[in-house]
Amino acid sequence: MSNHWFWWALSMACVIWYSTITVYVAIKGASDIKQMLARLGSGRKPEAGES
Amino acid sequence: MTNFNWLLDGSIVGLYLLVTMVAGLMVRKYVGNVEDFLVAGREMDVYLGIASLAATEFGIVTCMYTAQNGYEKGFAGATPGILMALAMAGVGLTGFVIKPLRDSGVITIPELLEQRFGGRIRWAAGVVIVLGGLLNMGVFLRTGGQFLVLVAGLNVRYLEIMMTALLVGVAIYTILGGMLSVLVTDFLQFVVMSAGLILVTILILMNVGWEKLVTTVEAQYGAGGFNPFVNSTMGWQYVLFNLMLNTAAVLTWQTIIARVLAAKDTRTGRKVYTRTSFFFVCRFLIPGIWGIAALATLGPVANTLEAMPTYLSTAVPAGLMGILIAAMLAADMSTDSSYMLTWCSVIYNDILAPFRKRPWSQRKGLFWNRTIIALIGIFLLLYGLWYPLKGDLWTYLGVTGTIYLASISVLLIACCYWRRANSWGAAASIIVSALIPVTYLVMEQLPATAALAKSIGPYYSGIATYLLSGAAMVIGSVIKPQGHAEGRPA
Q1: pLDDT (tens digit, 9 = 90+) per residue, B392-451?
Q2: What are the domain boundaries of chain B?
Q3: What DSSP letter does each residue of B359-378 carry, written as one string?
Q4: How many residue pairs from chains A and B have C-beta atoms closer than 8 A?
Q5: Residue in B367, B346, B365 with CA at minimum distance from that of residue B356
Q6: Nearest to B43 among A14, A29, A39 (CB)
Q7: Record: contact A40-B41, CB cut-off 8 A
Q8: Per the CB < 8 Å rule, is B75 touching A7?
């Protein structure tokens, strides 16, 4: 581990980050879908931000 | 022999397929016009964008070539992922290219190019994008089928049938629901795919152990297994080629850019980029670890592409095997659907543009989009069946992707930031960028020139393509007489 700390740290970061982001995106993404379909269903768009 | 249990694992896979198909078909009722079909009415928000981008850019083919990289190059094989993550974070933070692109309100990149370079360049760029994209995608199905056959222990004779069934399922919901179905199924596929990837990686780390992975790489590749610059099969040319390739992909790969264009505004598109960037390290390193585990467990094998699935077929227990296969199906279906839709959008929006002098009705537009997706599916089946893959998979994808990545990235940067860029430079850049990789691929296949192609290698050929494509843009633009307006500046 001490010889190859970079790859060890990166591998652990991948597992931890990916696990966390999966749960977070699963919750927030479901909400995004609900809102997207509601907007498309009602046929109106909210004001865009930077564009 | 494999640990796949038809009752337990088959039920998990069947349930996943059922839920995905139902979800994909349910949202088709929201498709009212071509914009809904191609860019989901530009209603995509950040987290859906992250899920969709991650799911799209991770297919079975990705898992196979990144695992092959891990098997053949050790940890250093994850270098392209690190480079891509850096490029993506940089572009997301600065808004380089993607801000003017999203601000312009176009559906595809060639549509923006027309504003600076004219209609002919738009058409030519569309052709090059579709050519590079379809050649690239042509190996997805066979590779995906290879994985599933090996892991589930099916007879190899069923590979073609599995490929066809997989594609037909994906094509049905993509044809009916377009980008909306793609986004919703991508979301489900992201969750299933991520669960499978994480669980299998934890299992491998627990069973094989970190020390064994490291000592295997040390024994097989020495320092080169950890450092790409001292690896005999990589070196500075590999790193430079992959830096160019991944930066160009982040800026112009239509399936990635499609998420920026579908985002509800520019800021959302940029956030999707920055927040997904680290995923691209995981995308290479996690399957890379699977490949190294295969090396540690199986030792040297004849077909390095098949090492990882062969290893997983016995290392993953029943139950988790079902989750793994569902995860890989999820990965493959999300990639196939997005890719089919993306290349369809370019064919419809740009290549068929000259045939739409008068605007088509929404009904006719939707009909043609759906027909194009079906035709792309047929092409993929035919191409996937007969093309014999030579060399490693990542290199093939890199070379075919370069056909358009080099010129379109040069054109896009010039279009956004160089006032003197014009159609002569754009045309020269497209020709040079297509000519070099296509020549290389042909040389690789012909017995008379195969040895020469091997001595040049894909990395020098790739670097030359990017550099000469840029040079062609500069030279072409400079030699064209001034004063010829070609459309409004982007």
Answers
A1: 666 677 777 788 889 899 999 999 999 899 999 999 999 998 888 888 878 888 888 888
A2: 8-390
A3: PPPHHHHHHHHHHHHHHHHH
A4: 112
A5: B365
A6: A39
A7: yes
A8: yes
- Upper half-sphere CA count for residue B432 (Cβ side, 13 Å): 27
Residue B76: predicted pLDDT:
96
Q: What angle do CA A38, A42, A46 make, to 5 degrees?
A: 75
Distance from CA of A21 to the nearest CA of B (A): 9
Nearest CA in chain B to A16: B198
B117 confidence band (pLDDT: 50, 70, 90): very high
Q: Which tens digit of pLDDT belongs to each residue from A4-50? A: 899 999 999 999 999 999 999 999 999 998 988 888 888 644 433 33
SS (H, E, C) B294-335: HHHHHCCCCCHHHHHHHHHHHHCCCCHHHHHHHHHHHHHHHH
> Sign (positive/negative) of CA torsion B60, B393, B390, B375?
positive
**Separation CA A46–CA B264 (nearest Å):** 9
CA atoms of B224 and B368, how far apart (whole Å): 51
Contact status of B212 with chain A (Cβ, < 8 Å): no
Q: What residue of A is the nearest CA neighbor of B182?
A: A33
CA closest to B41 among chain A residues:
A40
Put simply, the answer to whether A32 touches B46 (Cβ < 8 Å) is yes
pTM of the model: 0.85
* Whether B280 contacts chain A with CB within 8 A: no
Q: Cα(B125)–Cα(B128) distance, rounded to whole angstroms?
A: 5
Question: Chain A partners of B57 at a C-beta cutoff of 8 Å?
Answer: none
Angle ∠(B387,B392,B396) on CA atoms, nearest 5? 55
Model pLDDT for residues B31-63, shown as the tens digit of each residue? 888 888 888 878 888 889 888 888 888 888 888
**Averaged pLDDT of chain B:** 87
Ramachandran region of residue B118, left (φ > 0), alpha (ψ -120 to 50) or beta?
left
Domain B8-390: assigned CATH number: 1.20.1730.10
Determine phi and psi for B460, rounding to 5 degrees: -65, -40
B178-198 per-position pLDDT tens digit = 888 888 888 988 898 899 999
Percent of chain B with pLDDT strictly greater than 70: 96
Q: What is the distance, to the nearest Å, from the Cα of residue A20 to the centroid of all Cα atoms in its chain?
A: 9
Pick A14's closest partner by Cβ from B180, B211, B285: B285
